[in-house]
Amino acid sequence: MINAIPENAFVAGTYQKILAYVAATALADADIRLNEEVVFFNARHDPQSTLPPMTTIRTRSGTQQTYDEVVLTAPLGWLKRHKYDAFPSDCPLPSRLLQAIDNISYSRLEKVYITFPMAFWQQDTVSAASHSEDSPNSRLSSSSASSAKSSTSTYPSFTHFSTPNYAPHPPDIAWNQTLVNLAALPDTNSHPTLLFYLYGPCATHLVNLLKDIPVSTSPSSPYHQTLRTFFEPYYSRLPNYDILSPSCTPSAFLATNWQLDPFAGNGAYTNIQVGLENGDRDIEVMREGVGEDRRLWLAGEHTAPFIALGTTTGGYWSGEGVARRIVKLYDALEVSEEVVAARERDREEMKKEVLSVEERDVANANANANGLAL
Ligand SMILES: Cc1cc2nc3c(=O)[nH]c(=O)nc-3n(C[C@H](O)[C@H](O)[C@H](O)COP(=O)(O)OP(=O)(O)OC[C@H]3O[C@@H](n4cnc5c(N)ncnc54)[C@H](O)[C@@H]3O)c2cc1C
Fold it and tell me: What is the pTM (predicted TM-score) of this model?
């Protein structure tokens, strides 16, 4: 029998190398401006104009730039919050696009890393596994993800706590948790660390518990104590746990709070919620964006091919999809010399406008210093 389910790879070494490979061309050839929050997209549709449309963007510091094509990859959560204020009020986004942005929901997945002095739950390696900041726990190399599948003495890679009645929680909210055992990763990527995934209202509950508490590595800190109280009911159920053993006492916690991060769209990624109708059409409408009319294209995981919505692969594919459409449009346009000359004149005008904005910013340095949000 042919195995129809393809392998779902775990990228043990993080996306770092993949990203470096994917970004190489842009890093070498593009003018990249980091730490610039775009707050306004002046993308208009003027059916009377003989010139192709252009889009002017404005950053929080007040700088304006005009481009032939703009690809907006801010997350769906960002679009939900800024679908009106980031676009001209006299030329808003089309109502069907606004409706699509509202219809598809945005998830609340968070991660919490809990590191121990050793991976006590790894029965066969418990005595060998010790953690060092400089060199991840290479002595756990025998417990690679693949060997974990076949070895009966190695704790598995994934654990689900499906009905944790032993953990205090509101009765009406699902509190099930998933953890990934990072000690089961191969070779130098293995750590004596448990990675918990929290979602929905439970994730919001934890983010709110932590939101006013400073992040700290000190075991006596409120940050450490709050997370320890929350997660002890779970990790205390793993094999070999001994409440009196220092090996079973967390040495560090780290929790994400993407729900509070506007650049993450205050959440995680596209969620196809129960009860949604015609969601496929909503995704298609977002994928279509307003590129052909207004030169403002939408990309990002929320506009990906259906199979890859909510994934890094989907985000990448969506960018390729938009690039292909832009190239096709230019092939079809065959921009005439007259149009090119008119654009050049427009650009010169625009440069003067940008200069005047920059002069104003120099005169108002305080506004600039407070403005950069990334
Ligand atoms: C807990 C968790 C686990 C996940 N696990 C997986 C997994 O195992 N596999 C997988 O494939 N995917 C996973 N994902 C999903 C994956 O991370 C996303 O689908 C992917 O990052 C989306 O890429 P993107 O480019 O669309 O958006 P993002 O990665 O969110 O990038 C958007 C960028 O826009 C920038 N930005 C936002 N607003 C502005 C603005 N106004 N001006 C300028 N810049 C702005 C942000 O700073 C950010 O850099 C996970 C996500 C979470 C939260």
Answer: 0.82
